[in-house]
Amino acid sequence: MTPSDIIAFLQQHHAESVVSAVADGPYPHALVKAEGLAAVAAFLKTQPRLRFDLLRCISAIDWPAKNNIELAYDVISTSLGHAFAIKVVVDRADPRVESVSTVWPAAEWHEREAFDLMGVEFLHHPDLRRILMPEDWPGHPLRKDYQDIVEYRGLKFNP
Amino acid sequence: MNQTANIKPQTPLGQAMFVCERPKVEYRGLSLKIVQLATKWGPIGIPLLLRFAWGIFFAALVFVIAFVWVVGRFINPLLPWFVRDVVVVVGLLAFVSIVAIIGIWGERKVSGRIQSRLGPMRTGAWHGWAQSLADGLKFVQKEDLIPQDADKPLFRLAPYVALVPAFCAYLAIPFGVGWVFHDSDVGLLFVLAMLAIEVLGVIMGGWASNSKWSLYGAMREGCQLVSYEIPMGLSLVAAVAWLGSLSLVELGRAQDGGWWSWLLFQNPFLFAAFFTYYIASLASCKRSPFDLPEGESELVAGFHTEYSGFRFVMFFFAEYMGMFAVSAVATVIFLGGWNSPVPGLASPLWFVIKSTFLVWVQMWVRWTLPRIRIDQVMHACVKYLLPFTLLLFVGSSLWQLYDNPDHRLFEGFAAVVRFGLGCLGLLLLGLYFAGAAYGFYHRNQLVGQMVRKHLPGA
Amino acid sequence: MKEIELQYRHPPDLLDDGEIPSDIRTEELVLNMGPQHPSTHGVLRVVLQTDGELVLGATPYMGYLHRCAEKIAEKVTYRQFTPYTDRLDYLAAMNNNLGFALAVEKLGGIEVPPRADYLRVIFAELNRIASHLMATGSYGLDMGAFTPLVYCFREREWIMDLFEAACGARLTYSYITIGGVREDVPEGWGDKCREFLDYFEPKIAEYNDLLSFNHIFINRTGNVGICPPELAVAYGLTGPCLRGSGLAWDLRKATPYCRYHELDFDIPVGHGENGAVGDCWDRYFVRVQEMVQSVRIIRQALDKLADGPVQAKVPRVVKLPAGEVYYEVENPRGQLGFHLVSDGGTSPYRLKIRGPSFCNLSVLPVLAPNCLLADIAALLGSIDVVMGEVDR
Amino acid sequence: MLEAVIFFLLAGLAVAAGVAILLSTSIVRMAYWLITMLIAVGGLYFLLGAYFVGVIQILVYVGGVAVLLVFGVMLTSRQLAPKLRPGRGEVVWLALVGFVLLEALTLSILHTRWQQNAMAPANSVGEIGRSLLGEFLGPFELVSVLLLVAMLGAAYLARPKVPTQGPQHAKGTTVP
Amino acid sequence: MMGLTPYLILSAILLVLGIAIVISKRNAIAMLIGVEFILNAATLNLVAFSRHGIGGLSGQTAALFVIVLAAAEAVVALAIFLNFYHTIATVDIDQGDQLKG
After folding, report:
1. Which chains touch D (3 or more CB pairs under 8 A)?
2. Angle B376-B378-B381 (CA atoms, 0-180°, nearest 5)?
3. CA–CA separation, D29 vs C220, rounded Å?
4. pLDDT, tens digit, 9 for 90 and up, residues A87-145
5. Interface touch B10/A153, C-beta < 8 Å
């Protein structure tokens, strides 16, 4: 199915949670409300005409100007072959969104990485802790306004 | 004093990180007195010592002679048997260390050639023959680490408990007709007993180095060796029952009628018993598919992870001595030890040739086969090897029961079978040499263009 | 066993953390397969709860090789970021460069000349063979057979020489840049490459006899770490790990890029010859068969190598229009994805890298329970993890 | 004369091992002292000319039982090692009982006149084998049955209590 | 020449040591070690007598039987101690007093 069909199909079933959608261009996606994320995700995976079973990547993009963090979920279907993406916008000060690890277990580690590097809080995540940085590392490195720390546990770096 | 100075570096999980500064050694008690004495008298003492070096040397010599004379009061040191024993033990020690040294060098050359590379070429002119000496020297000057809360006395004792029995096994192995240290009539059992003690050294080493990984190595070692002693013993019993004596010299002397009188070809059960014995001996000296105790890829280095310096060399020597001892027993019992294929030309050289061939096969197997898992090792022993060797023992004794003059028909059949097995043995040997010749003839295609271009010696 | 309260006439030695031990059934040993371990293929720390040889649980700890390449990407221009992509999966640097270059070209709408396309396919497939040689060789080493590793390295050396002749480097090439290939291959390179292919093809059969169909190897890897296809897809496994579980999913066929649609090759899939479908042996054997397919691809690409320019007209400092793209490439270890967000500047606003080993490793805690200690080495070797792209 | 020297050496080793076990507190040390005692007694058998019994002692005892013992020590000594230091009263009692028993035995040994006829020559394994199957055939068969029973009993007793599922090969894991 | 008495005195000493170990140690494995001491003292006696002409060869065959039986006994004892260890976290004999009223 082409991206526009997917978007039409999506709006037909989940009109209230789909905010906007872009069909053409290099990155066809649909913007979804944070509350409706879990429902849309389950819909994408279980719907026989979509069957997006392989979650490829969850990327968190920090927009300090618009004071929000964008989460992009890229999915592809190994049986039907078409790809799609859904995006969620969360407030930058207190980023909190429902975890999709129940739908795609692959999301577990991606969400832990987003939590670790970007500071996005995922609710009902089986084991949300830092994955790449040390356990007690202050701050979230990938944020645009991240200040590199000077000294950590007695080890000093010059910025 | 900024506040961060006193944070002790911790690992992420909060345990105190082990900061390894240079340990400041403080002397106590006796060692303190020695150090003080040395510093005080050193500048005066050492030149004095050098001045009277020759005097001290001769004084020591006189002391030794006096001591021997006093001991002689108990036993006369010039007694023939005493001198003979000392000479033979020293000779054995020399032979065994040469075997180990050549073994280490040989293993590296063999593994090189199997992996289409050259192996050591530089140390000591022709094909790096002095490589193992260089290794020994390197290991001697390595720092001798003992883990902090290891069981120190046991840690230090373990290599010796592994090395000494490996050497004692050679006391009962006959190299030629008269060439044996003590021809006791339980020679074979003595060798098996010595190999059994070696297990304790390895377990002690694994337990004393107080690390989980070496404990795993020690446990695996214990299970594997103790359980593989049974099939090893049983296949030997099948052979011994055929000749009726446990003394290795007896066994060797009974096989001196050319290659068709070798025990290997006497009956099909003994032919199979040789191979089961060989497999069990691979397991008993931790070689090739059974090298679990020091399974590098999962146990880092198994029981001798924490050993460094000369202690590690002890374990290494014990392994190579064990390899040769086990092959020596196989040659004496199954391949007619010092007897040559053609009746008459018996000499210790044949013994050495056959044993080195079996050691070469061990190396060859090591560099081709992957490692077996511990539960497969146990299953193989209990489910396959043990019943099979029991069957061989029963079959061989039944065969012996009927293979005598009053069963005319069966005896003829047995002679035919003996001849057939001899031909089979010859065929196997021929196959091996044909394969080797083919490999040598086509070595350029097999090895590949890279090696020919870069490594002229391949 | 009912709780037995232990009364002591002589107080026992307290455990080191000071509390009186309760009624302990079986001792669980916590084993630290630390960052420094021969079979973890890099700095990965796996904490194992074991009961004797049986492993009850495994939790991997990553981050020892974390260089935060994504943060650097935001401060560096597009061309300057190519060398960083070599260091992601340092065994398949060509494929990483190809992925990044394709992502940037898709967002910037840059056209690549045909000769550069075929050169890219040839180099990507040669690097796939080199990486699979490394994977199969080191897997033999994990199982205790030392010789296959040295044979695979002997072949890999020849590929390294070919790369060195083309781009001067042996491991981190940055040869495939935005808009094409850095420079043309020296003449006569094609024949050398064909000579290697002719030499290499019969060798694969030799390795199969030496290792793949070796009875001990089959016992050690067959029926170990079975990962059914649904579990593989659920945990985001891609590449040989997914194909080993019987799912014929390969981006070069599913979403063809860079002229793969013109070349015909088939996708090897695990059939469970020696044990269940999706066990360690299948994952390993899929890699061996993929090498055969790569040789086929390179031969066709070499024949189709038209001459012409190898570099499209791309300004020195690449400036991409504002926008977003997610582009995935089939790496030897799985699908390497680049999520590129640009705000019209000379350097990417945000670059998220989806490392295939990162997702492949996430299945270890699921498959590890009830394995033996030696099976953990087999499992890790068959997933074939490279820590460069797990920690990025 | 040499025989006396060797005898006192080995006897001293065996007794030293016993005393060391009495004094030591670490169970692993005790296990290894037991092994030295076993080897010393094995040496004594060689000295007494009973080569076969000496070799069997080393093969069965040191190679088998002692390794088993060390395994037992390794498996059980991890958690809390029970106090091995005997209390004050125990030592006094121990010394008293020990010396009384020792005196009684040595006096009885010294006073009886042992009927010591000539040294029997060092006999070969053959005779032992023949007597094993001739005169001692009854006990020989009984011991084989007893060994079988002991093996089965021990295997039954030491079976793993926690029913661990078979290794994971048996079944694939279901999707969480 | 070496008479019989030194061997008998040595086996007496070993016997007493064995009994002392069994009494004084509270660890199950230590008791097993004590029992091994006692068994070895007995076998030493057997072999010493058979060597010095009393009873001919039967002494040595009896010694073989004792060694074999000691092996079987050690196996069963260890199996029991492992079981003991599994129910109660220690091998300390004093803790085995569940049957007490």
Report:
1. B, C, E
2. 105
3. 38
4. 999 998 888 898 998 899 999 999 999 999 988 999 898 888 888 888 888 888 888 88
5. yes
Q: Give the helix/strand (H/E) hosting B62.
A: helix B53-74
Strands (E), A64-126: 68-76, 83-91, 96-98, 121-123
Residue B32 sits at the chain C interface (C-beta within 8 Å): no
For residue B21, is it within any domain? no
Q: What is the pLDDT of residues C167-210, one digit of tens each?
A: 888 888 889 999 889 888 888 899 989 989 998 998 898 888 88
CA distance C334 to C358: 10
Range of the domain at B205: 142-402
| Banded pLDDT at B396 (limits 50, 70, 90) | very high
Q: What are the CB-based long-range contacts (under 8 Å, 24+) for A149-154?
A: A151/B4, A153/B7, A153/B9, A153/B10, A154/B4, A154/B5, A154/B7, A154/B8, A154/B9
Pairing of β A29-32 and β A83-91: parallel
| Whether the Cβ atoms of residue A107 and residue A100 lie closer than 8 Å to each other | yes
- The backbone region for C370, taken as left when phi is positive above 0, alpha when psi lies in -120 to 50, beta otherwise, is left
Which structural domains are found in chain C, ordered by start?
69-357 (1.10.645.10)
Verify whether the Cβ–Cβ distance C9 to E89 is below 8 Å: no
Q: What is the pLDDT of residues B399-435, one digit of tens each?
A: 988 887 888 888 888 889 989 999 999 999 999 999 9
The whole-angstrom separation of Cα A59 and Cα A74 is 8
pLDDT tens-digit series, residues A65-91 = 888 899 999 999 988 888 899 999 999
A78 in contact with C at a CB cutoff of 8 Å?
Answer: yes
Q: What is the pLDDT of residues B293-351, one digit of tens each?
A: 766 666 677 787 888 888 888 888 898 999 999 999 999 999 988 888 888 788 889 99
DSSP single-letter state for residue B10: B
Q: Which residue of E has its CA nearest to C25?
A: E86
Residue given tokens 């924490």 in the structure block: B306
Q: Answer yes or no: is B43 within a domain.
A: no
Contacts of A35 (CB under 8 A, 6+ apart): A17, A98
Which 56-95 residues of chain E touch chain C by CB within 8 A? 86-90, 94-95
Q: Which of B188, B197, B202, B219 to mutate to test the interface with D (most CBs of D within 10 A)?
A: B197
Beta strand pairing call for C176-177 and C180-181: antiparallel
Whether residue B151 lies inside any domain: the answer is yes
* C224 in D contact zone (CB under 8 Å): yes
- Is C2 an 8 Å CB contact of chain E? no
Pairwise CB contact (< 8 Å): C25 & E86: yes
Using H for helix, E for strand and C for coil, what is the string for B285-321?
CCCHHHCCCCCHHHHCCHHHCCCCCHHHHHHHHHHHH
* Residue B458: inside a domain: no
CATH tag for E7-88 (out of 1.10.287.3510, 2.20.25.110, 1.25.40.10, 2.60.40.1180): 1.10.287.3510
* Section D77-87 average pLDDT: 58
How far lies A52's CA from each of A20, A125, C81, E87, in Å?
Answer: 20, 21, 32, 52
Beta strand A155-156 with A151-152 is antiparallel
Domain range list for chain A:
3-144
**Structure tokens given for A8:** 């039409």
- Classified as helix, coil or strand, C42 is coil
Residues in chain C where the model's pLDDT stays below 70: 1-28
Which CATH homologous superfamily contains domain A3-144?
A: NADH:ubiquinone oxidoreductase Nqo5 subunit (3.30.460.80)
CA distance C280 to C143: 12
- Rounded distance between C-alpha atoms, residue B104 and residue B92, angstroms: 18
Q: Where are the domains of chain E?
A: 7-88
DSSP symbol at B342: S
